[in-house]
What we know:
Number of helices of chain B: 10
Helix content of chain A: over 70%
Distance between the termini of chain B: 48 Å
Largest interface: A-B, 34 and 37 residues
Structural class of chain A: mainly alpha
Low-confidence stretches of chain A: none
Radius of gyration of chain B: 24 Å
Strand content of chain A: under 5%
Oligomer: heterodimer
Distance between the termini of chain A: 45 Å
Shape of chain A: elongated
Largest sheet of chain A: none
Radius of gyration of chain A: 22 Å
Number of strands of chain B: 2
Amino acid sequence: MKAFPPSTARQAGAPSLQPRRFGAVNWIGLGALIGRQIRGGLADYHYQVLGPVVSCLLDLTIFQLAISTMRGDAGGGLLAFIAPGLIIYAACEKAYEASAATLILDKHERVIFDQLMAPVTAFERSLAYCIGPAVCGLAVGVAVAVMSLIFAPLRLHDPLALVFFALAGTVMHGLIGTLVGVWAQKWDQYAAILTFMLLPLSFLSGVFYRIADLPELAQDVIRFNPIFYVIDGFRHAFTGEGTDIGLAVLVVAAVDLVLFLWVYLWFRTGYRLKP
Amino acid sequence: MQNSTQPGGLSPAPFTNPTVPRLAPRAYGGFNWIGFGTLYAKEVRRFIAVGTQTILAPMVTTLLFLAVFVLALGHSVDQVGGQPYVLFLVPGLIMMAMTQNAFANTSSSLMIAKVQGNIVDLLMPPLSPLEQTVGVAAGGLTRGLAVGLATGLAMWIFVPITIAHPLFALFHAVMASLMLALIGMVAGIWADKFDHMAAVTNFVITPLSFLSGTFYSTERLSPAWKAVAHVNPFFYMIDGFRYGFIGHADSSLSAGIVILCICNIALLVLVHRCFARGYKLKA
Lengths: 275, 283
């Protein structure tokens, strides 16, 4: 008796053993990758979402107390200035963490091969590493924004700018996180990029103060920092102030595009991921 | 040779030979200094090996805090407690860096040892609970002081720091680092997962250290916030430490010293009891 003649596969009711056909984009694979990142990034919400919220509230409390004790006014103006900066910073940090930490963990636990072997193209993986971290970042951003309403009377000035800069900022950090995650071998490197690069770039670029208060030279240096445009544009969505908004959109979009192409190239060549 | 004829297997006679050392247990005095020194050296080497993360990173973060607060508030605030705002801020920031790192050192040491299973290397050697407690705590204390020194020196480049009462500042630096090292040990012994530790850091240690008058003088706070500040032991560390620098304190110094001493003794006893009973450490 011949075992499994080819015709048995075509019996009524039996699934066809043909390879699955994808269109131009493997939506199932893309969705699975994104879902995995979101679950990884937000599953332990106790400290993954609550942590940033608490630290942002602490920052606002301190500023309020510092202003009220030393200046005597309620400090509403300064808090309304700081709060948007803190919101976008928290969202961006989360996006960076979501992609970089996932990748490093996957590499350490050697489950990265599950992604490399799955039928997803480099483009789909790059896209997943844009969207997944951005969703995690936006979730944290929304939580921080809601809580900071306690302190600062935030009023929406430009909803379009809000959506654009929130998305573009988290995508930017998600992509930076992807590059770091692909490149880093150790957790030290992940933490070093965060402490010595992203934190100073954000904090010194106007999360807490107007760069117009700085010396000319410092202002010129800061204008080369793409994260400054994310913060400045996002704040513009609330306060309506800030530098040239068109320039900010252009710079942030260009940086996002370059980072995306970079990530795509690395995923395509398998840099540091494939032997 | 004549001894080997003795019946009954191994003879005790070679041990009487003066050229062979006696294989008796090593006798310690009241305190096992060798063991304590080894444990302390291990705790210190542990953080020095990753100095970028354990000393340089807190230094950079603290400098950032200084820059941010001075730039955001400096131009609207002239003087706090009779001092320029930046001089008021510096001691508080140094203290904050010291306490957070003393806590991080001991808590992560015990936590990682528990997760990786090499906590037995701490429990099995001939160390008494006192030696274990003091050895690990001294490691955290050293990390705190090292970070404090590094941060202070880095700030000194930008800010003309003067120290009014050096011994007073040193006393508070030691007491504060020791206290946070001990709290870190309690947390490290108690926590089962890294999540627990992150929760303690995020929801207990950071708020206590932030809301302690580091960034503002408590003298002009509203009564409610003032009460919050004054029941916080972190406030007394920072207040006393700042007095050592600028010669101005928000509250009673002797009360602060008494509170810090009581807290440290109570914590020492608590950690000692944990090690003695093996709470969450021994099966």
